[in-house]
């Protein structure tokens, strides 16, 4: 319902990457989006672009991003989701020394932590379940085969 200058799909990725000063990735990790941003896509971007990933690490090719950042010092990345995130008491580590680069800002996968997010998400989920239980169409039904 909000006005937009452009609406596109993944087919428009090259156009968007070439035109954008800042790109924020906030899409699900699916078979189609795994490795979506690699060496070629990073080269499409402006030399002084900013790439922010608040989605899933595997959407970006880790080695390609590291090499691009290292060889393009005016290109910046904000990384909130990592390729290997610690689980069950594991220590955090990266496969490449991203934190040695001056053009990287990293955070511990906490971009979604805002006041009242759990209450809001639970409320939205309950609203969406109600029609499903009544035999009506629910929003956001996912196809298992699209995911890894």
Written overview of the protein:
The protein is built from four helices and four strands. By secondary structure, it is an alpha/beta fold. It has helices at residues 13-19, 39-44, 62-71, 117-133; strands at residues 22-25, 50-53, 76-79, 104-106. Helix 3 links the parallel strand 2 and strand 3 (76-79). Strands 1-2-3-4 form a four-stranded parallel sheet, with no helix packed on it. 27% of the residues lie in helices and 10% in strands.
Name a few traits of the molecule.
alpha/beta, 148 residues, globular, 4-stranded parallel β-sheet
Total helical elements: 4
Question: What is the helical fraction, as a range of percent?
Answer: 25-40%
Strand composition percent:
5-15%
Q: Any low-confidence stretches, pLDDT <50, length ≥5?
A: none
Number of strands: 4
Radius of gyration: 18 Å
Short description:
It contains four helices and four strands, in the order αβαβαββα.
Helix and strand layout, with pairings?
Layout: H1 13-19, E1 22-25, H2 39-44, E2 50-53, H3 62-71, E3 76-79, E4 104-106, H4 117-133
Parallel strand pairs: 1-2, 2-3, 3-4
């Amino acid at each position: 319902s909000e006005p937009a200058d452009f609406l596109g799909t993944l087919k428009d990725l090259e156009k968007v990457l070439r035109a954008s000063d800042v790109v924020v990735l906030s899409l699900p990790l699916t078979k189609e989006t795994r490795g979506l941003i690699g060496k070629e896509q990073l080269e499409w971007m402006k030399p002084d672009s900013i790439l922010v990933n608040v989605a899933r690490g595997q959407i970006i090719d880790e080695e390609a991003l590291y090499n691009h950042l290292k060889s393009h010092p005016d290109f910046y990345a904000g990384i909130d989701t990592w390729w290997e995130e610690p689980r069950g008491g594991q220590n955090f580590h990266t496969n490449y020394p991203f934190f040695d680069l001056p053009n990287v800002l990293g955070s511990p996968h906490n971009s979604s932590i805002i006041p009242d997010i759990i209450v809001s998400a639970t409320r939205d989920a309950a609203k969406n379940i109600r029609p499903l239980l009544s035999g009506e169409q629910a929003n956001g039904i996912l196809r298992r085969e699209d995911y890894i």
